[in-house]
Specification:
Oligomer: heterodimer
Helix content of chain A: 25-40%
Structural class of chain A: alpha/beta
Helix content of chain B: 10-25%
Order of helices and strands of chain B: EHEHEHHEHEEEEEEEEEEH
Strand content of chain A: 25-35%
Largest interface: A-B, 44 and 41 residues
Largest sheet of chain A: 8 strands, parallel, barrel
Strand order of the largest sheet of chain B: 2-1-3-4-14-13-12-9
Distance between the termini of chain B: 15 Å
Order of helices and strands of chain A: EEEHEHHEHEHHEEEHEHEHEHH
Number of helices of chain A: 11
Radius of gyration of chain A: 17 Å
Number of strands of chain B: 14
Largest sheet of chain B: 8 strands, mixed
Number of helices of chain B: 6
Structural class of chain B: alpha/beta
Distance between the termini of chain A: 24 Å
Amino acid sequence: MAARRIIPCLDVRDGVVVKGVRFRDHRIVGDILELAERYCQACADELVFYDITASPEGRTVDRSWVNRVAAVLDIPFCVAGGIRSVADAEDVLKKGADKISVNDPALADHGLIDTLAKRFGSQCVVLGVDSLETDDGYRVYRNTGDPEKTMAAERETGAWIREAQDRGAGEVVLNCMNQDGVRRGYDIAQLRQIRAVTGVPLIASGGAGNARHFADVFTEAGADGALAASVFHSGEIEIGVLKSYLAEREIDVRQCSPEQS
Amino acid sequence: MAGTNVAIVDGGGANIASLEYALQRLGARGQLTTDANVIRNASHVILPGVGAAAPAMARLTDAALADVVRDLEQPVLGVCLGMQLLAAHSDEDDTACIGVFDAAAGRLAGGPENPVPNMGWCRIQRTGAHSLLDGIEDGSWFYFVHSYALPPGADTIATADHGEPFSAVIARNNFHAVQFHPERSSQSGSKLLANFLAMTA
């Protein structure tokens, strides 16, 4: 199988990268190109750019930065946030993104997944899911970028992911909201459960605080990739060091040669 | 790369920009085109492709480009779906392809340890010497995104593994094809593209 992927996520608002220490408190940490190149050189396997304000505010995003990122990056990247239509997706992909991630708009219109998969291929279509553990089990939530608009989507997480996969989603990013921003580790129990019902690649999101958390999400939950933001942005975890740690534990990761880093 | 003019055959896929940017980083220019004359007169031709085999072949056939590509004598590089289009057949919607390579693309079997699509970085194992792989060591990492692949065969010069071995790089005469995305494969991919651009007809 492919190597386990380490994926820094850069939250973008108004054309700059913000740091999600906690979901409800963002801080700017640097411009997009500077961070993109830094992560590329640091041996990140791919990058996710998430326009965190796009969906709640219901506006069209300025995507000129996608062109600039595509020109400097020689690893794949995915754009999430604000993609509501085939036209939005085409715009982002034409500007050089490798994948687009849809979350709320797919919940509002399930057929959007089918349309995107048919037009661009499943490999381009990532389903983002914000999931919260409740008394009724794992539930999908919507509009999680805006505290005032966050609401339950009345869907059981596993059922939604299975449906989206049948409709053509080629990858799933599961953001476990109970863990997000608290750095106590990925939600292994939930990820393991979702892994069992998911045939496409599964990317874990939410909760990374140290290197062991990454090892656990690969060995115990079977995730194909691990996404994180603040631990990378703060410099607490250096990707090369993390990959050496994982390799020592016989987890297959792409190592970069010294001249690359 | 003086004298290098690269035609990128426009099969209608949306994400071609990354390939154009990768060529730019190497000092070459790629022209996205469906013009048969531009393609015939290019020093190098790249056949990219994303999405499904049937609509991609339909677009090439409608633009009368399948025959044009088959008859090219300059260096040609198929990328990802472009590799499968250069084969004889794809099991994806039972599609007849261009037929430069005597091989057929089949769906990856997958399994619990091998999700399909195969999405991510895989090592390649070199199975033959070829100038396209100059300076690229056995075990080098490349970025793959695909659900179909060609089995290893006579034209295979490198394989990768997704629960089963498949062709990562194939070559026959002036035709070459890679299942991975060199434009998104960091230093190894850049080296491979540079090797391709260094080839002469």
